[in-house]
Amino acid sequence: MVVMLCFLLTECGEEKEWTYELLEEEFGGVVELDFDSAVTCLRLLARQSYSVSGYVVDTNDFSPDILTISKDPDAPASYRINVGQGRNNKYFAAEGETVYVRAHNIESYTENYYLSTLDVTGGYVSPDKKEEEYLSVPEFIKLMDVIYEDTYFKTEGYILRDGEDYEGNPQYYLYPSEEAYKENKYNKIELQFPEAQYHLAGKEVVIIGNPDINAFHESLQNCSIVEEK
Quick one: which of 130, 126, 127, 147 has its CA closest to 48? Predict the structure, then answer.
């Protein structure tokens, strides 16, 4: 099992901060992180943009800036990606075309991933190649599965309860420490457990979980408590 600490040391002995490229080397394994590095890595995933090419299998009759791409017209629904373009986009793809996309992967509560060019520097949907390499739709889906299902972040901190989740279960958040909570209540990681948890508030823990693709802020899902301190 490959484990990486929050910083890597360069040949000169200087600390090197996390980048998406460094994190990419750890996909598919357990990554040990201190609290601040866990927040950094979750933000890296949320802000990363991807280059994907695909065949347009559907367009939205009411919003021409929304389309669906796949590897080919016969691909099953689970191998399709929805794409949303910026409102100032001047190109609207038609069904049957092949398009090239640079966009963020954003939250989606359907079976399909959703790519959006909004707020992406240099983001686009184009009929022409603008880069040397693009992921195919199956390659992109495989990568997302590895990141959000097979990659685990292991970190530690101080748990507090704050309200309830949408099912009425206690909602927990992880903070660096009790003192850090007092200083900045917004520096936190949301924790989602497979089953409702009780009596966790106020505990120092080591926790492990998958990055949450649907989160509006830093969040881990499928969480388990590794150790109580």
Answer: 147
- Residue 166's contacts (CB-CB under 8 Å, 6 or more residues apart) are none
Strands 49-59 and 219-228, sheet pairing? unpaired
Q: For residue 100, give the amino acid letter.
A: Y
CA distances from 223 to 36, 174, 209, 220, 228 (A): 18, 11, 4, 7, 14
Buried b (16+ CB within 10 A) or exposed e, 172-207: bbbbbeeebbeeeeeebbbbbbeeebeebeeeebeb
SS3 197: coil
**pLDDT reading at 16 higher than 60:** no
Q: Which amino acid is at 9?
A: L
35-44, 101-110, 169-178: segment of lowest average pLDDT: 101-110
Global pTM reads 0.87
In 3-state terms the chain splits into helix, strand, coil percentages (rounded to 5) of 20, 35, 45
pLDDT at 14 over 70: no
Containing 180, the helix (H) or strand (E) segment is helix 178-183
Tell whether the model's pLDDT for residue 208 goes beyond 70.
yes
Digit-coded pLDDT (tens) for 96-122: 999 999 999 887 667 789 999 988 888
Report the SS3 class of residue 140: helix
The full DSSP string for 12-75 is TS-EE---HHHHHTTTTSEEE--HHHHHHHHHHHHH-EEEEEEEEEEE-SS-TTEEEEESSTT-
30-32 and 219-228 as β-strands: parallel, antiparallel, unpaired?
unpaired
